[in-house]
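User: Okay, second chain of the day. Same drill as before: sequence in, structure tokens out.
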Amino acid sequence: MNSPLVPNYARVPLAFERGEGSWLVTRRGERFLDLGSGIAVNNLGHAHPHLVEALKAQAEKLWHVSNLFEIPEGERLAQRLVEKSFADQVMFCNSGAEANEAAIKMARRYHYLKGQPERYRILTFEGAFHGRTLGTIAAGGQAKYLEGFGPKAEGFDQVPFGDHEAMRAAVTPETAAIMIEPIQGEGGVRDVPHVCLRGLRELCDETGTLLIYDEVQTGFGRTGKLFAYEWAGAAPDIMAVAKALGGGFPLGAVLATQDAASGLTAGSHGTTFGGNPLAMAVGNAVLDVVEEPGFLDHVNRAGLILRQRLAELRDRFPDIIAEIRGSALMTGVRLNIPNADFVAATRAQNLLCIPAGDNVVRLYPPLTISEDNLQEATRRIEAACIALQDGMSQAARAGASA
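Assistant: Same drill. Structure tokens below.
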């Protein structure tokens, strides 16, 4: 039977009925340990009671009024984000792509209103992923996402990842901003060294260029701090966030200094659903949990356990595991076999992980995962590695006897 859905997703034949913390349960009752978290969205796991209660309570009062009116819970969430970050102001939207689009527009408009309309170009890095809109696929610059959608949107320049001289040479009088993920997610969980982020901050200060961070995947505790840029001590001018901010409810935001945001005057940008009462109730509930004493300590402790166990598996299975990457519970495993094979092998062990670029799989468990569940996860990864190694040995023997 043909599905009525557009076939733009290569879906795995699993249908989940409910979630419980770090576990997903199919309609047939099979339990899967979730090390994907909806691609870094369900940072607080599935059906977190505080988030469920916040959504239910708000749903019984008010869902949507539009941004023609004040939304007090939005004011409250924005204030909390300002207090926890570099930012002075916040604009809410619905997704990471929208947040990045708004960040790009904010940077261009900033220079335009300062009498520099020629400063509209955005510098980004090869391997980046900033979303699926026409603007954000141009920002990411990856051919596989650009193919078939017409000419690439004007005003975006990519430089090689980690090439400092190329970056410095690429900044021209037309450059409005440099846009970067502190850790590339889709690109293969590739860390930007902290010294490099500090160098970009200095370069932007020297040239009057705005610095934009895309923390859509890294934000809200995934790397062991509320935001990944805190590790480097190099604050941006503008930052896009989403995913974990809503804990599963569609919610994005742009955080900015007052100066960087000054171009977005009344009527210059907008969104119908962004910042509606339902989203704001959930966003505030997410911060309630993430701000609890000891929450980030647990994330860092869990990340250390995961990395230590993965390092042991790398030593035991060097033909399968090549490298461990990332920070805290934003973990990447670069492989010596096709990452699709590894994903399938772990799924056969009722464990879910996510493929990424550079032949990497992402292990993004809920930040609330217990140490017992984390140990169970690594046992299942070990079982997958054993099965893969046995398959490789059988294939080698069959080849030798042929």
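The CA atoms of residues 6 and 23 lie 28 Å apart.

User: Thanks, on to the next one.
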